[in-house]
């Protein structure tokens, strides 16, 4: 019987349809570049650097979430043979860019049911339609990572669906490079770190139990990282550089009142806050690996999918940046990848049987072959990862 999710959980709508500087050269082929100390992470720096370096109606009716019974790992077919059931993967931020392309790549295999965990329900539904994901291979569930209450509600609603969880992809992110002042999540954390790191931290901690219960042969938890959080690369050396310092701002609540809105306790800088959040994502993946890989068998991974210069991530940047960034990445750094190609890469990390190693930060070379990349010193600092874990636990109410 169909359950009216809206009446159970008012704000949770659900539509059920069935390295190193050198190593950066591997990630793109940016040759012999000299990076000025004064290069800033804004449009002018891109120019300087370039020079220097030479509904509703179309959607149909919204149906409430249907309670499903968890199928066992092997489903008997009519002729008596047993086949592996479809995997279930949650992808946050699947309404555009990398998340949407990954949802498409996985759904098209017919081996995955994708749960698109999105803050804008109708946008997600339209996006799925626009790329032609077939109805039986996806569901949309509401998740706003900038509210811990929404994260908890999402987990509750997902559990009520009765679906097993076989893979979780923490992909959603916001980037606010032109913000002059910090803005905040529902619980009062600076918005970029609050969304990209703390929202995902709570989500993945809660859903680890669900992954543990799954009988799927390969269970995976992936947190999307980036080159720009890694200061052992050229891209990671474009100011402002990521730096979590001693985490004093985070420990103080990141609220801009009795503490700084920045993790390291410094002045607010939107571009730095994003890069810091990516360092948190990569540290969290490794801490998960250290704490839970052996016990649970879950594979924990992160990745840099390439520079997907056309996505919505840059929507807050000035128009000229948005115009010049794609050709800059295509023709100058050669780090550009299309959304489709990046989606295939992330889909590999979700399901390819050769990428089962846990604790790895994956990247791809210019022939699109995956390799285990090296993280910067800070992004691989085990002591910092432990401290980040403990402080984050307190902030999201798990400790
Ligand atoms: P997009 O802006 O296209 O996608 C980001 C997604 O996150 C959107 O679906 C957006 O939803 C969602 N989102 C934002 N805020 C929230 C929130 N509060 N709750 C739920 N969902 C939210 O950017 P990309 O596809 O480029 O980014 C995806 C990932 O890839 C990010 O982790 C980013 O750091 C990473 N990455 C991107 C690179 C690039 O070059 N683009 C390079 C390296 C890594 P909505 O559609 O409603 O806005
Ligand atoms: Mg970068 C190999 C060189 C390389 C690569 C792969 C990237 C990726 N970038 C490179 C180099 C440079 N960038 C250089 C030399 C400059 C100075 C001109 C430069 C500038 C620049 C700016 C202003 N780059 C940027 C910005 C952004 O606003 C983007 C950003 O930092 O978002 C956080 C960005 C990026 N460059 C990349 C990638 C992947 C990004 C975007 C996003 C991300 O990490 O998620």
Automatic annotation (TrEMBL):
Domain of life: Eukaryota
Name of this chain's protein: Uncharacterized protein
């Amino acid at each position: 019987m169909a359950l009216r999710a809206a009446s159970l959980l008012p704000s949770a709508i659900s539509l059920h349809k069935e390295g190193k500087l050198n190593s950066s050269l591997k990630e793109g082929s940016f040759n012999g570049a000299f990076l000025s100390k004064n290069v800033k992470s804004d449009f002018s720096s891109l120019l300087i650097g370039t020079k220097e370096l030479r509904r509703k109606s179309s959607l149909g009716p919204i149906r409430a979430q249907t309670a499903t019974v968890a199928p066992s790992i092997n489903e008997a077919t009519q002729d008596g043979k047993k086949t592996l059931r479809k995997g279930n993967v949650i992808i946050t931020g699947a309404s555009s860019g990398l998340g949407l392309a990954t949802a498409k790549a996985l759904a098209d295999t017919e081996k995955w049911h994708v749960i698109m965990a999105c803050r804008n329900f109708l946008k997600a539904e339209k996006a799925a339609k626009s790329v032609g994901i077939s109805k039986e291979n996806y569901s949309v569930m509401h998740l706003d990572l900038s509210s811990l209450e929404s994260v908890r509600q999402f987990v509750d609603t997902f559990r009520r669906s009765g679906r097993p969880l076989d893979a979780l992809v923490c992909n959603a992110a916001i980037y606010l490079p032109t913000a002059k002042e910090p803005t905040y999540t529902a619980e009062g954390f600076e918005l970029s770190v609050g969304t990209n790191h703390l929202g995902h931290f709570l989500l993945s901690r809660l859903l680890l139990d669900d992954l543990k219960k799954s009988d799927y042969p390969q269970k995976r938890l992936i947190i999307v990282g980036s080159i720009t959080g890694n200061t052992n690369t050229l891209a990671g050396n474009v100011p402002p550089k990521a730096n979590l310092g001693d985490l004093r701002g985070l420990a103080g609540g990141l609220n801009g009142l009795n503490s700084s809105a920045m993790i390291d306790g410094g002045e607010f800088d939107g571009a730095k806050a994003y890069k810091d959040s990516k360092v948190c994502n990569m540290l969290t993946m490794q801490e998960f690996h250290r704490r839970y890989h052996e016990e649970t068998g879950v594979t924990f991974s992160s990745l840099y999918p390439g520079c997907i210069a056309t996505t919505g991530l840059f929507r807050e940047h000035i128009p000229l940046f948005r115009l010049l960034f794609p050709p800059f990445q295509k023709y100058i750094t050669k780090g550009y990848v299309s959304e489709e190609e990046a989606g295939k890469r992330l889909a590999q990390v979700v399901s390819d049987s050769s990428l089962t190693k846990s604790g790895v930060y994956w990247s791809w070379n210019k022939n699109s072959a995956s390799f285990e990349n090296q993280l910067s010193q800070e992004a691989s600092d085990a002591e910092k990862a432990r401290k980040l874990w403990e402080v984050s636990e307190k902030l999201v109410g798990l400790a």
